[in-house]
Amino acid sequence: MPLTPFSPALFPPTADPHWLAPWLRLPGASLLTGGNFAVMTFFALSGYVFTLNYYAGKPDRLRVTLWGRYIRLTVAMAPIVLLSWLLSQGGFYATQDVAAATGAITFGAQMPAAEMTLANALRDMAWHVLMTGESHFNTALWTVRYEFLGALMILLLFLAMPHGVRMVPVLCFAVLAALVFGPFAIFVLVMLGGALVNAVRIPARAVPALAFFGLFMGSYLPGHAPYSWLPAPFTAPDQVFFNVPLYNMVGAVCLVAAVARGFGGRFLSARPLQWLGDLSYSAYLLHLLVLCSVSAWLFLALPRGDLALLLNLVVYSAVVLALAAPYSAIVDAAGINWARRFGTWVTRPPGEVPRRRAGVVHPAE
């Protein structure tokens, strides 16, 4: 639930929590209120999509995706950083005011004015977000690091296996990812899992069970009875959090594998869901900016209560979708097109006449 970071009615610093709070922490409900599984599913889907050409017998097309990756991600990300800087300069962020009113320290740390300089914005737009995943202008951009570095590593792995997936290179890749990223390698390995979905045979009758298991693992919450049988590999205080994305990773790969085999195809092909899917990446990039500005000011202006929280949620969702629709159609689509054209130009053999490519490219490419 996007409003819970600064809602004293749900998560007050000292008093008893709102009646809804315990329900939001139950397995199943966490699919709607937590972002971990959604992010892991997007990573798995991304790995699945940008390796489709490999399984279609066109491994050379991976080089197009490889060369265009910087453009594809930067064109979508850079305007968000610039917009966040403009909002900060205009005084549109109300994170400090909300934190003062509610005691929400984490939310108050968002959009620190002292760090939101034009120099930092230009640095983040050019390379800093892609290489480090850190940005004061939008902390949700941490995912871009793994979408960039993880994708480059996986694409190079598959280009090194032109005649089919081999176990030894895949295992070596997993070890290398663990050495480079530490526990954060989970966010690269989930992309690898998505990329390997087409390399595994799954009986048709096992697909529903696979989807159910994926959702079950996607709902993982430590300390709840349904998950008491699962070990917690990460025990260090500064790493215990990674148990959640670890099991979410398993769930995301299982769910993507089930959907790739046709599970829920009729439901997922409905036009409203297709439309939301098209907007999902742009909505993700924009949601924190809306949360820290429009939703924060609305929270301060409205009286405390359930109806006010519901109204804020409706307004927040409407504003995010209203902004994401043109952003996806104009900015994100341009990034996909420019990345494909640049990658095609770089990899085209000398003397070959360029051909216009038909069809629609998935945003994950």
Tell me briefly what this model is.
The chain has 365 residues and is mainly alpha-helical.
What does this structure look like?
This protein is an all-alpha fold and 365 residues long. The protein contains 16 helices and no strands. Helix 6 (95-102) packs across helix 15 (271-301). The longest helix is centred in the last third of the chain and has 42 residues, at 306-347. The protein is globular and about 65 Å long.
Features:
single chain, 365 residues, mainly alpha, 16 helices, globular
Task: Summarize the helices and strands and which ones pair or pack.
Layout: H1 21-24, H2 30-33, H3 36-50, H4 52-55, H5 61-89, H6 95-102, H7 105-108, H8 118-132, H9 142-159, H10 167-181, H11 186-195, H12 207-218, H13 243-260, H14 265-268, H15 271-301, H16 306-347
